[in-house]
Request: fold
Amino acid sequence: MKNKIKLVIKIAFILFAFWIIFHKLNIDELKKIELKEPFWLLVAFIIFNLSQIISAKRIHTYLANINITPTFKYQLMLYYVGMFYNTLLPGGIGGDAYKAYKFEKSFNKGYKLIIKSLLIDRVSGLFAIFILMSILLFFSSFTSFLAFGVFLLIISPFALYFIHKIFFIEFKPSFCKNLNYSIIIQSLQVLSFIFILFSFGIKVHLIDFSILFLISSVVSSIPISIGGVGLRELTFLYGLELLHLNPATGVVVAFLFFIISLISSSIGILFIKKVGNINTN
Reply:
């Protein structure tokens, strides 16, 4: 019952978000948006999934710190199954809860310790977004935020290091390696988003679009939506209005990014039966 209520709330939020979007956007502007080079959507899909493969490698590295050592092939399959549960079955078991259960059962490790590994994996990704966003600010139209960008660039690596040292000491040995992984992952996701822009023939203001994409990635982690739907689109709606750019394009491209992640998540259904027994290194 609790999960059903959460699902209803999320659906209600998505409907409300799109009511705001369609209320503010000119429908005629949406009709003018045309897919010009669909080939780039395929490239975006490939790049997005490459980022997911590296994401699986990052959590694989964190888990090795606590002697949880499935094969990477198994880890990758389980990662996609987790994506499937998170995105396509939002009212059921969460992807992280499912992964934690599988590892606890197979490696006799404490559930809380496993959850810590999954949590620091998320935190590492968040700080990589901060670092990447602060670098892009120097080349963007967000000139009034340059001082903030400098602060964010300096403080983020140190803050993440001390978070590892104080709260996640078990995972400190892989701090540098996984920070590098995280920056690569977020860079690939930005690149995937840019390729979606290319598919609509958009090749200007790419840095500004990329910053808004990174902001939307942070915002979409708020657990009030399904896969960030509505949250990403609202970020582009108001962000592009701030820059006096056409928000309709950003909203459409943000939604297409969700579609790509949705299709990618559906790959997990192919591996549900195969992750029954964990293969170890």
